[in-house]
Amino acid sequence: MREKLLKRKLKLLMLGMSAYNKTDVHPSIFILIGIPGLEAAHIWISIPFCVVYLLALLGNCSLLFIIKTDSSLHEPMYLFLCMLAVADLIVCTTAVPKLLSLFWFHDGEIRIEACLTKVFLIHSCSTMESGFFLAMAFDRYIAICNPLRHSAILTQAVIGGMGLGIVLRGTVLLSPHPFLLRWLPYCRTNIISHTYCEFMALIKIACAETRIRRAYSLIVAFLTGGVDFILIICSYVLILHTVFHLPSKEARLKTLGTCGSHICVILVSYTPAFFSFLTHRFGHHVAPHVHIFVANIYLLVPPMVNPIIYGVRTKRIRDRFLKFFSFSKSVN
User: Fold this and answer.
1) Distance separating alpha carbons of residues 228 and 238, to the nearest angstrom
2) In this structure, how many other beta carbons lie within 10 angstroms of the beta carbon of residue 243?
3) The pLDDT of residue 4 is above 80
4) How many CA atoms lie within 13 A of 120 on its CB side?
5) What's the CA angle centered on 269, arms 67 and 280, to 5 degrees?
6) Residues 107-123: tens digit of each pLDDT
7) Is the pTM of this model over 0.90?
8) What is the SS3 string spanning 129-174?
9) Would you tell me how many other CB atoms lie within 10 Å of the CB of residue 175?
10) In the beta sheet, which residues pair with residue 29?
């Protein structure tokens, strides 16, 4: 096993040297090496990663199909959930196939254009996911605090406008990232100690002053994920204020139950996201393999868990899902 690891490291080094000339500070190819220190376990790690990815594909595609084919589910919460499912599918599909190719076939080579495209898609769609969480929180706020005007406020046009605004925000704010990285000099190495192309992973191997780029990334992260999270907290403070003024305990529990799925999804998504963000920028003493492992969990687990949470906790989706499968069995 140790000999295989040494051969693989030597192969990556030779590949990196052949694709990279020290006099060329703008390499055309980068080399992904996976999770440093856990190379021997890459094959075993790839198995749960592959299973989680397949479950994410199955769950989100099933969710999109169920909501599309059932007109009774064409409500704001479920429409925002569809938008979230699409963003989840883009994020995990952008990163995971190359990750599995790296783990299974030691195929770490990636052209700079493909790498920068992945940077843009992963970061912009992650930003969009945060926006969709905020939109769903706004829907819960209107539904609980102003139920009589819910359908009048959240019309189809408003929902479409909110979705378009979230997509444009992610696209506009994150589109500079590839350009900020494209013309950086990479005179030290073209080897990326990560499983996928990521903004900070590329910044770390650059041999130029990157404070302005880091500051821009930090500002964008705060203006999107940070502000979204603060507004979500504010919406739930107002929701709780309204709920605790309801006359009966049964009414309070029933109302809070409608928010359960959304709260679970937010916790599953934001916890690894904040940990990954903070350790990348401030956690200099955190082992690299810990950070990279958490970064992969952030990309893989929420897309898998989101449809499961909504499928289990939302009776209408659960019933529609069971009805679909019982129909399939009866046909067979």
Assistant:
1) 15
2) 18
3) no
4) 19
5) 145
6) 999 999 999 999 999 99
7) no
8) HHHHHHHHHHHHHHHHHCHHHHHHHCCHHHHHHHHHHHHHHHHHHH
9) 12
10) 111
